[in-house]
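Hi support team,

I'm opening this ticket because the web form for multi-chain structure prediction keeps timing out on my end. I have pasted the exact lines I submitted so you can reproduce it. The total is 556 residues across two entries, so I didn't expect it to be a heavy job. Is there a limit I'm missing, or should I split the entries? Thanks in advance, R.K.
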Amino acid sequence: MIRIETIDYSLFYRDFRALRQVTIQIPANQITAIIGPSGCGKSTFLRTFNRMNDLIPGVRTEGRVLLDGQDIFQMDPVELRRKVGMVFQKPNPFPKSIFDNVAYGPRAHGLHDHARLAEIVERSLRDAALWDEVKDDLGKSALALSGGQQQRLCIARALAVQPEVILMDEPASALDPIATLRIEELIQVLKEKYTIVIVTHNMQQAARVSDSTAFFMMDEQRAGYLVEFGPTRQLFTNPQHKQTEDYITGRFG
Amino acid sequence: MNSIPIARTAMRAQPRSNLRSRRVGQAVAFALLWLAGLSAVVALLAVSGYIISRGLPLIDRDFLLTRPRGGLGGEGGISTTIVTTLYLVLLTIGVATPLGVGAAIYLAEYAGETESGFLSRLVGLARLGVETLAGVPSIIFGLFGFALFVSALHFGFSLLSAGLAGACLILPVIIRASEEALLAVPRSYREGSLALGATKWQTTWQVVLPAAAPGIITGIVLSVGRVVSETAVFYVTLGGSLRAPSSLLSGGRTMALHVYYLAMETRAFDKAMATGAVLIVTMVLINAVINLLSRRLSAGMRG
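Hello R.K., no limit was hit. The queue was backed up. Here is the completed structure from your submission:
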């Protein structure tokens, strides 16, 4: 089953074309990794799916992007972002308590019943493998947590609004190896319930965690484009394109 | 191979030869900065020490709790001026805070989004206006308040006229402090909130504003200080009545104004000093209380 589909999708920043005619089909309940050299537009591409690029003045798009067959540019961005959650490169918990961080999304969508909120907070923290570490001080400031805990809190915060898709923009790049490992294990579990798209500059990570991998490059005009997309194992062992092979063998990038 | 040891000694010799002069430079800079810091503290202590030491002997319960009776001798205490100051602070802050914070939210959060060239030019003009107003002498605000509120709108010399003119005076202070505080909130907070499907307003109200609160409160405190110490604006809008104001439309005099009147129109110079001492202590107290408040607020968030 296909969760997200882009058809000839291009993105312009004023006159500059940042993404060139990307066509891809992202399967549901899988982990799809997006890899590529710096500046190839992989983060920009990821931010398409929850329309975070709308926040940047001067951005214009062409082509279609479908979520469950529905054009996301026809949807209300607020509603879209409830369905498509995001975890950022640097953990960004709000300067609020752990509880309030996780309850933020449901509250924003109009849920104020405390018992229901408490239930959602516990389930989300459990799903993000953080519950056992914080269950006794949910009132503590989220900023007092370690970096790895903060990132799992941000994952819990995203889970609390029950999205279909979770976008992850290099979620472990600011973390130490042990915290990274925990996040990677967590992602593996989460794919049972969610579709996960993860941008990473770390090829080993892409090979370790993902089911499918998309490799992006930029052309002479510095526009990012999709070179190859396929099952991760195939892309890393038997790439179809010379550029992919050069990149994954480290000859370039 | 031969050249390497030579290069090494050359590299080593250089830092050693200027180490002494760099140390001297460091010592001189430290001494000068220390002196500057010391002289600032001494000047401050001299001014407040002089006023407090001359004024303090006159301050007692009676001085604080009886009303001034006027006359050339400056008879009586300062009770009504304390009350008037309090009213005026509440009024100006009450008017200027919602306006100022609202303007700052617009400038920091919404103005950047506009696509229209006309609107963005208007916003640029508003910014320039705020910058300029912050540097305008306070008597100009006084004249404006006199012309508009006292005369044209027939509010007379009153709390209302003074409160509105005072609000104009502190508006730029609050706008600038609030805008800076809002701009200092990391973009990642906004993105995190929007990515959860919160609206822009929810993001601003529930995430950005609380994070900016310590900076905004600092701006409000500065403004309280401005109002408490201001004389020029209130001289031409509040009048100089010795009585406590009974309504928004009655006049009065603040402590600072009272100091001015006592010094210029009576022989009670010591009473002016005593009132000045009360003013200084008030300012110190205001600053202490609000510092504590804002520290507790930001500490609560940092955990």
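A quick check on our side: Chain B touches chain A through 24 residues (CB under 8 Å). Let us know if the file doesn't open in your viewer.
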